[in-house]
Each structure stands twice: as structure tokens, then as C-alpha cells.
Amino acid sequence: MTKYEKIKRLVEKNNGYLFTAQVVELDISKTYMARYIKENNLEKVAHGIYVEPDIWPDELYILQLKNPKIVYAGETALYLHQLIDREYYDVFVSVPSGHNASRLRDRGVKVHQESGEIYKLGIVEVVTNYGHKVKTYDKERCICDLIINRKLYEVQHFQSAMKGYMNSKEKDLSRLVKYAEKLNIRDEVMKYVEVLT
After folding, report:
1. Integer Cα distance of 120 and 83 in angstroms
2. pTM value?
3. How do beta strands 49-51 and 123-127 pair?
4. How far is it, in rounded angstroms, from Cα 185 to Cα 76?
5. How confident is the model at residue 85 (pLDDT cuts 50, 70, 90)?
6. Four-point Cα dihedral 85, 88, 117, 163, nearest 10
7. pLDDT at 87
8. Closest residue by Cα to residue 40 from 3, 7, 6
9. Which of 109, 88, 111 is nearest to 157 (CA)?
10. What gap in Å lies between CA 20 and CA 10, rounded to an integer?
């Protein structure tokens, strides 16, 4: 198999994305890779990440690749779980305490730092609209965070997300209560559970 074919296979395997690190792992020079990128009109979307010209870059996937410790949270997580109709305006993420998030903030990402146990609480993978897996919090954690930060949300989004979750066949109320206890908001969560279920 030629170098060209190896790179082409990588792009196909990655659904139109090319990662410099993967090319280097195959002992193909960056010079040769640059030639492939130019000949095939790939677009640079981030450091070491290129996409084919007919691919619409997946912002959340690319951000996750560049920052493996981020977990999508807030409005972004609610959107990923289809608990709000409108697409998120800002990207919200959580990172572990002590993580240097200055580059994320410089890009306009809304960053919340969490202690180790709370940061890890409810992490799952979901598929973006573009078909890529990213890390976010599960629906139960999203609902807890929604209640904690309710003053930051438009009333319509808050109500839509709460009703959407409570009417969902996939809801897990025992997990919701378990998270609420860990986050010290059990009484508040129970009020919503009693009213909306």
C-alpha cells in the first residue's frame, strides 16, 4: 500500500477527517502529508486536524479532540440530549479543578471547574448531529445542573428541558435523586419530581 493510499484510508476511516498524529504514527512525513492535503484541498480546522472540502466541521467534536478533559455541560448538554429545541448559543463545558482552561476561555467557551468526584458524576458519550461521539453529562446530571443554575436560563428553556425530561420514557428518577443527594439539592429536585410526574 502506498503512502497516498494509507492517508486516503485514514481519511475514510475518520469520516473525512485527517489527524497529523495518526499520519506520523504510520511513519509518513509531514511534508508528504502536506502534499496530500494540498492535492485534495483539505481544510485546516484546528492544529493537526484537517477535513475534506465537502465535510462541514463538527465544532463540538473538534473541541473535544483538542481538549480531551472537557465534558459538555449546561445548555450545550441539554441540546445534545434534545432537551431544548434551540441550538446552544455558547459552548458550555466542565473541567476538573486545577485544569488550565485559559485557552478555552480565550475561544469564548464557558468553562466551569468541578471537584474530581462532581466532575466525573454522570459522564456519558453521545453522538453529535454530525455523527461523532463526544463526552457530556447524562440527562439526570443535566437536570440537576439545570435546577442549580436555573437563574441563568430563560424560563422557556428551563420549562422545556424539565418537561422534556419528566415526560421521557428514558428518565431514571432513582439516578436523578442519587445525583441530587450528592449535589445537596435533593429537596429542590423532589419538588419538581412531585409536580411534573
Report:
1. 21
2. 0.87
3. unpaired
4. 22
5. confident
6. -20
7. 79
8. 7
9. 88
10. 10
